[in-house]
Structures are given as structure tokens and as C-alpha cells.
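Exam prep: given the inputs below (a chain plus glycinamide ribonucleotide), describe the expected output before reading on.
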Amino acid sequence: MKRIVILISGRGSNMEALLKAKLPCEVAAVISNKADATGLEIARARGVHTAVVSHKDFASRDDFDAALAKEIDRHRPDLVVLAGFMRILTADFVNHYAGRLINIHPSLLPAYTGVNTHERALQDGVKIHGCTIHFVTADLDHGPIIIQAAVPVHQGDTPQTLSARVLREEHRVFPQAVRWICNGNVRLNAQGRVETDRMEQSGTTLISPGLE
Ligand code: NHR
Ligand code: GAR
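Solution:
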């Protein structure tokens, strides 16, 4: 059975979606950079090993990342999953996990990298928004894309209503991506591109606000 380690910083709803899905892998640990992340309690309640590596205990990003990697590697993971993890990672860290580190990002990348994605999408007036699961590379939020889900932006949306609509989709596509990787149906090839065994598309088009 493949082993995964999940990194969180807060609420942990994506982590919970992974724990609830019947995935073909063992969640060896959930690690947070914040001691008060509510996701830690959710993991503990499900009997998953938890740990905290606080970035505040380290003088530099290099020192924090080295300590984080040491904690992760104790669990010998095949895959490391960023589920709302909010610290930018150094190139050394990212390269150590090349091909076995993925992130969920709340936008249709390459649009809206970084933070406050829903606010910026609303500001721009885009009609379609969504989320992306990608392999993590040193180039922030620009790693090879595994799967995306698109949602319509509604008139009168606030960052809260829009993020809730996106989050529902996050909880669907994230377990799928982890399942594909654990089953060997998706991988990062030597050219740094995503290879997949699943070629067919379900063929639905999202047009927003929709045709008459
Ligand atoms: N690290 C690398 N090298 N590459 C990526 O693609 C990464 C990454 C680390 C995290 C998640 C990411 C996202 O999905 C992620 C992808 C935090 C920030 C950020 O600015 C940016 C992107 C992401 C996560 N963090 C601030 C920092 O100084 C802190 C912000 C805060 O604590 O609220 O690290 O968007
Ligand atoms: C999710 O929407 C995730 O996509 C986003 O933070 C939220 C975490 O929620 N990630 C980022 O913004 C990364 N910069 P969760 O803790 O309930 O999964």
C-alpha cells in the first residue's frame, strides 16, 4: 500500500475529504505548520498520526524546510500532498520530492497564482473560476497540471459564496487525483510533463452565464 503524508495550515476540509474517500493508500501522517490548525483535530479524531512543525521556530525558510522534510521522511511517503498548506517551499525542498509532491490551488491556473484568488477573480469579473491540482515545482503555482474543475461565477457572488462553490469541487477532484497517482494512472515523466492512462474526456462544456 502506498503511503501519503498530508500538509495543512488550517481548516483541513480538503484533508478531511481525502481521509473520507476510500483511497488506495495509507495516510501515514498529517503535518501542520500551525499548532492551532483545526484540521489537526479532525485527523486525530480519525486516528491519523499528527505533527506540528512551526515555521516560527526557525530563523530561515531553509531551516524550516529542512525540519519539515525530516518530519515528513520519518513516514517514508510515496506522495506528499499540500492541502491548504500556506508556506512557500524552497527549491531544495521541492526538488527532494520531485514527482511526488502535489498541491490544490483555488483557481484555474495559470490564472490567479498566490493568495486571495477568489477576491481577484471577482475583481476582474471573470465568468468561470475553479481549482487546480498540480505537481509542485520551484516555480510557484506553475507546476504541471493534473486535473482542474471549473465553476460559474454568479452575479452577486462574494469571495465567501464563490469560494464555497469552488471548495465543493476541490473536495471531488482532490481524492481523484490522489487515487490516480497511487494507482499509477498519472505520473510526472522525465520531461516534467503529466502522463495519464485516462485519455477520454467526459465532454461536458461549462458556458457561463450560459446560452439562451
Ligand atoms: N512552493 C513551491 N516552491 N511551489 C509551489 O507551487 C507551492 C509552494 C508552496 C505552497 C501552495 C500555494 C497555493 O496553492 C504552494 C505551492 C502559500 C503562498 C504564500 O504566499 C503562495 C502559494 C501557495 C501557498 N505564502 C506566504 C509565505 O510567505 C504566507 C502566507 C500566509 O501565511 O498566509 O510563504 O497558492
Ligand atoms: C482551499 O480552498 C485550498 O485550495 C486553499 O486553501 C483552502 C484550504 O482549505 N489553498 C490555498 O489557498 C493555497 N495557497 P482547507 O484547509 O479546508 O482544505
